[in-house]
Write a structure and sequence with these properties.
Blueprint (H helix, E strand, L loop, with lengths): L7 H32 L3 H27 L14 H30 L7 H28 L2 H28 L4 H29 L6 H12 L6 E10 L2 E10 L5 H18 L3 E10 L1
Helix pairs in contact: 1-2, 1-4, 2-3, 2-5, 2-6, 3-5, 3-6, 4-5, 5-6
């Protein structure tokens, strides 16, 4: 992913704005789908409304985590508070898993009971409105997440996409039930549950990789080496590694310098290495440079 010139202030303001929009949209959609599902006797649409309700909760968690992560470093948190974003991403994934399991459980109970109803036309209209709205919200949120390289905002965008996909599935299953195949209304809610399980697991897996300090892409590391090699006095690069901290990176490098130079000259080389990296990678917030005599 190419780096863009960003500031933490711009990142947090844009992230909070897109998150707030998501909360407001989800509140309206949840009420609309729940009422439409009850009036049109559609279990699939009620399940979809339940998924949107948990969207509201998870998005609120995103908002709180953004407020915490923007706090400056302190004595107890010398690396900052950005990792709260990774924790929040995991919570979003857990909410998706939990919602999916709950919907599957309810679908199983209904299928065993053998009861079914023919949903009304209002349920189909609600699905169309939800699909269009959530897809638009996904694209808006994903664009912000991609621009700032934010795992948290990207996870929230996937949550919106999951709602659009589940509503699309719900539309087709309600349509089949509307034309007489009533069991498909319940099967549709079960399919929604499976989709949520898959997306929740994907988010949790990505969160686990960040917590285990998964290295950035090879392209990212090669660009790091290229910026370091441009510094006068660097004879070799013996180590380059980076680990994610929320939406940012902590970088550590080891470089070889002439063993005959002064301490001050070595310090200048190290400082210039840090400056080069910070300028080329706006999402790198901390650089540690080790000097080895050669």
């Amino acid at each position: 992913m190419p780096e863009v010139a960003i500031s933490s202030k711009l990142y947090y303001s844009q992230s909070e704005r897109v998150t707030l929009v998501g909360i407001l949209v989800n509140v309206l959609l949840t009420i609309f789908k729940l009422v439409a599902g009850i009036v049109s006797t559609s279990r699939a649409l009620v399940a979809d409304a339940l998924e949107s309700f948990f969207d509201i909760i998870s998005t609120a968690i995103v908002m709180v985590s953004l407020r915490i992560s923007r706090k400056p470093r302190d004595a107890d948190h010398p690396f900052g508070h950005q990792k709260i974003e990774t924790l929040a991403s995991g919570v979003v994934g857990l909410f998706l898993l939990g919602t999916g399991l709950l919907i599957l459980r309810n679908a199983y109970i209904v299928l065993r009971s053998g009861t079914s109803f023919r949903p009304g036309l209002l349920a189909l209209i609600a699905c169309v409105v939800t699909i269009l709205t959530k897809e638009a919200l996904y694209r808006y949120t994903a664009r912000v997440g991609s621009r700032f390289g934010s795992q948290l905002i990207s996870a929230n965008a996937l949550h919106h996409r999951s709602d659009a996909i589940s509503s699309l599935v719900t539309f087709f299953t309600i349509g089949l039930a509307f034309f007489g195949l009533r069991v498909f209304d319940t099967l549709g809610s079960a399919i929604v549950g499976v989709i949520l399980l898959k997306m929740g697991w994907g988010i949790l897996w990505g969160t686990a990789n960040v917590l285990m300090d998964k290295a950035p892409s090879p392209e990212f590391q090669e660009r790091l080496k290229s910026e370091i090699s441009r510094v006068d006095g660097v004879k070799e690069i013996t180590l380059v590694r980076a680990r994610p901290v929320g939406s940012f990176y902590h970088v550590e490098v080891k470089i070889g310098v002439d063993k005959n130079i002064t301490i001050e000259q070595g310090h200048q080389i190290g400082r210039q290495t840090e400056i080069n990296i910070m300028k080329a990678f706006p999402r790198v917030f901390d650089v540690i440079v080790h000097l080895n005599p050669r």
